Amino acid sequence: MKQEYKLWTFQALDTLFFRDGTPFRQGEGGMAQPTGYFPPYMSTMQGAIRTALALRQGWTPQKQAHWPEKLGTYEHLGDLKLRGPYLRFNQERLFPIPLTLIGKYSAENKKWQLTRLIPSETLVECDLGSVYLPEPQEHVEGAKNIDGWLPWREMEKLLAGKKPSLIYVTDDLWNTELHVGIRRDRKTRTAEDQHLYTTTHIRPKQGLQIEVEVGGIPEAWHLQETDALPLGGEGRMAHVSVSHVSESFPAIPKLKQDPEYIYFTVTLITPGYFGSRDNIYDVIQNGPSEVPGECVSACTGKMQQMGGWDMVNHCPRPLLPLIPAGSTWFFKAKKNEYSSIKQLHGQCIGEMTEYGMGQIVIGVWQEGEENQ
User: Fold this and answer.
1) How high does pLDDT run on average in the chain?
2) Which of 60, 72, 161, 346 is in Cβ range 3.0-4.6 Å of 367 for a Cys bridge?
3) Residue 59 has what pLDDT?
4) What is the average pLDDT across 56-79?
5) Which helix (H) or strand (E) holds 320?
């Protein structure tokens, strides 16, 4: 019997290594050094989760034929459904800050001066044609995009048009460390000359965890007790525990309406995959096709690339272009679309939604709106 989603929580035992798409073989990539990224993409998390589930069902690397059919193949997830990954810090789930929030931090006062971006009222000619570019509601000298995270209650406030009072930046959550390694001859167990390499590791701060919601499988298949599993590269380990999914998702606010239109924002809280680069270009410019109404403006981040390792063919997987989490579109739609808009809150759009890609939340344009 298939049950509801369960929450898999990963706690690093030491550092973690998640490599980006930079070539890692000798002679490739030129002067570019492979770097790490965090949080990991679902391509990494699903591998750790599916391997753990398969082992519990009797599969081993030496018994490939015993791979459970419910867990799919190296090309798809089978019956498995995933949401996330999310970060949790000090027992609160975190969400990436939407790119509509900009600000400047005062080290002297230890306070943020914040403002929100909204579509301008004047059309501007640019390489995208005639568009309404986002502009600050208030002038904040030196304001920039904030590479940070919001607890779910603070995210709820921001979606309702209010300014958050608590922000976590990267340095609050983890540190990066440069590690140097050397290739080893497995037969002689000695180091090989001229085979040094460097990797960038993540060292999570105390209290930082990675969460994935796992569903679509019988409840008995989930881990029944805390275990240690390999996560990411270089055989790094993490403690894993399974529990019920807690209610820690921001509520949809009351959306602003006039006699004809509803005005709302659509924000990615997990990276979105929308197929080919041409299709992604259209999504960036016109918004996701699943969203009703007209895209008025947008704040989208720099494209990312998700790769992975093909364990069947023993080669890297093709890099997939992603629109990063935090990217936000401003929409207006007819009032009769209100129910459809409300149902989108918390859903996944685009492609690879079974991997949790493209999860969105709905917000308002203006400040001061109240939550439903």
Assistant:
1) 84
2) 161
3) 85
4) 81
5) strand 320-322
